[in-house]
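User: My collaborator and I are trying to settle a disagreement about how two of our proteins should look. Neither of us wants to argue from intuition anymore, so we agreed to look at predicted structures for both before our next call. Could you fold the first one, then the second, and keep them clearly separated?

Assistant: That sounds like a sensible way to settle it. I'll keep them separate. The first protein:
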Amino acid sequence: MNDLKYVAFDVHKSNIVVAVLNLEGKLISEAIIETQASPIRDFLRGLSGSVHLTFEEGSHSQWLFDLARPLVSHILVCDPRQNHFLKSGNKSDKIDASKLALLLRAGLLKEVYHGQAINQTLKQLVHNYDSLTSDTTRLMNRVKALFRSRAIACLGRDVYYKRNRTQWLDKLTDRGLRLRAESLYQQLDLVRCLRRDAKKAMLREASKEKAFKLLSTIPGLGPVRVSQLLASIGSPFRFQTTRQLWSYCGLGVVTRSSADYELTNGEVRRRQKAGQTRGLNRNYNHRLKMVFKSAAIEAMKEESIRKIYESQVKKGIRPEMARLSIARKLVAVSLAIWKKEEEFDPKKMTKLVA
């Protein structure tokens, strides 16, 4: 136990600043190594005893996690948004590394989950599909913005179709605008083609997962949403409770309370008052929130779920809160089905989440 070392990496694109603390929290070593696999391995292998390593989440984090995991006793990738201690006082790479090592020793770092390498292929394919989807939307907006800049009405999707493209281009009398529109159309056609191929590759990889067919039976969760769900979560056993997954999806209700206890006849009792809500949590996985919000809207097309939504609205619950209840229930059902490896039971949707 006396050989325990706390190691922190302050990672940059060309070099890594390292701080090493002993069990008592004393700085025993500092180093600057190149951000390459061989120097990192050599440094970690040169440390004796049990090594606990940490570094902040960033563009290198998954690569560094996979590289260092076999060489250390414990590895923790931390959330930089939670490390407020690094912002106080003087700042430099060496100071940041030392503070990060101190936070690791004190157990004050917020861990960011990194899955096994077996999930990385699907993760990359989903990232590729999401990026191409965003690029497609961006190009479609640019096409419409170009026509609107000349007061040419372009409602609906007709402006994007190839069959009427010549008619739309003829409406642009300015040569420069026409050439720009032609270029945008070429880009749009290419990105759409890439997006179709990316979607096929993503679904092909996702269908290999055992949970793919089970989760696809849940209302509102089609093949694309299930693929995004599998890539974002990786393993359902990351979450011990449904509330943890709600917060990860941005569907956790934040409450605030104060003066919770009072003395009555010499006894400490909890006050009978409810905590005040402060909306939903702001630190969440944006992809998953989009998946379950859109899935809730899609699921309400089914009669049984639509009735649940309408009954909530009749009770005086605001429509957006009723949709939130549906989304939270979809999260709970997804987690249960994934863990228990059972098919979807429509009866489980009849009990609303409080």
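The second protein, kept apart from the first:
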Amino acid sequence: MRAQAETLHLPLTKDSELRAERNLVGFRSPEVLFSQRRDSRTYFIQDLRPAQQKEERLFEGSDKEYMERLNEVFRALEIPDKEIAEPRVLHEQMQEGHLDHATGKLVKEEPRSGKRWVTAARQVEGLPVFSSRALMALSSDGRVSFLELHWPMISAETIKEAHQLQERVREKWQAPAVEGAHVESVEAGILHSPAVSFVMDIRPVIRVTYAPDKKGLSKKAVRYVDVNGRDVPAPRQFTQPLPAPPEKQRPTPEGRPISK
């Protein structure tokens, strides 16, 4: 862990506190929190410095520098170059406004540039890994202020099964129908549990994206299915399902509570 902290330019000082909880291990110093999962290649970084020290100015380097910093992180954490897909820099746009009491209308200020984020997706042997990603932000002094890198190991057997699904999709596999929508895209790949979870389920799936038949603001539906078109259960986040909430009771005319 010390070697990773040094490579990532994280201040691991004498007063840093080592911590281990559930499936996470890491350290906390006055300036930074660094943790990683013990059951997955998953890392988190959070800048703990007061806001006035890290957010007074935005990082002024170029988008290329931003990308290079993410590549440094990938190398430090031994992420294979061939698995990195679709790296890009996201630009936030900030805009403020105020209410003109004379007219009752909202007056908007000119848009201005906000924070930047750099992100990357993942592919393994030409297969998209839908749940893996890297998301990073830099503070004004160039230090990593936020990082979530979720890149679990995937077995050869899972990759083989996903390739088999990929071949079926190429053979004009028929996606299940959804009322009021039509199929927009079909893609075989790999799905796994999210970064913040206590277990790691990994399974090959076919992702089907549906566009609504009617134009509007409707959100596109996405289904993860097997080769027979059956929905694949969502990867677990916990060892066991969450307990059901207690049944609410309502009073009867006689005043005795009964369950719904």
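Some points you might bring to the call about the second protein. The domain at 2-150 is CATH 3.30.310 (TATA-Binding Protein). The longest helix spans residues 156-170.
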